[in-house]
Amino acid sequence: MTSNTANDRVAQIAAHLEAVGSSMKDQVCIVTGAGSLYGIGRATVYALAKRGPKVIYATDLTLESLEGLTKDVESKYPGVQCICRAVNAAKTESVTAIIDEAVNTFGRLDVFFANAGVATGDPLLSEDEESFMRMMSINALSAFLACRYAGPAMKITGKGGKERSGGSIICTASVAGIRSGAGSPEYSASKAAVINLCQTSAFQYAGTDIRVNAICPGLIETGMTKGTFDYARARGSAHKIGQLNPTRRYGLPFEIANVVAFLASEEASYVNGQAIAVDGGLSASHPIVPGKFH
């Protein structure tokens, strides 16, 4: 790219961002793993809706609880269309079908939040080939499919009011994918794969203004972590949950969702190929003896 071409592109982006501000007007979004009543996906649908996109596809394996979500979103945010669909985020035909529906119906795709995932607390010697590959399929393959198929759709222009290539792919990873100590070996490996997929995909889409980032939650109270919280409360030790991070508490789904919505928006137009930890500071330090070095 010549310096003049680079300067022209920067000027074009600056003018565009000045015009749109923090709005997501006209944008089309897809969220996977939105079915859990207490999940990050569901919270993100609301966080995106606040920014006023044209449409949000709220998806999960089944429609259970999604229809109520879409009605509530449309009631609270007039002008935002929320559509629920059953999507298997780890199957090519299912992922391509929802992307094709978005593009064929609305002419564009701007945001894909690959949030579908599962977790276990199994130790290494309790895992086997079957459990490992199931984890990799649901967590890592789903992220791959999002990166592989959402990107080309985000390049499509001339329809739905989209004048330039661009978009944001965000995948849910975990602090467990950054280093040991926050999940089972198979879960941690799958989330490390998600992080690397986002980093390498960002370079695969170089020059297209398609950004790919991973969000790395710490301990968040969701349907997936309900067992941990219920166990602690039953033992009377709920006050200890999250005490290992410097914020000294656990997190809530909307605290992750707000960061996802930022990454989805053009306010994050220069954030690309990153693994962003939202964990109260847990991943910022090696283990330390309480009272030392601070």
Automatic annotation (TrEMBL):
GO molecular function: oxidoreductase activity
InterPro entries named among the record's database cross-references: NAD(P)-bd_dom_sf, SDR_fam
Record key words, sorted: Oxidoreductase
UniProt similarity note: Belongs to the short-chain dehydrogenases/reductases (SDR) family.
This protein's name: NAD(P)-binding protein
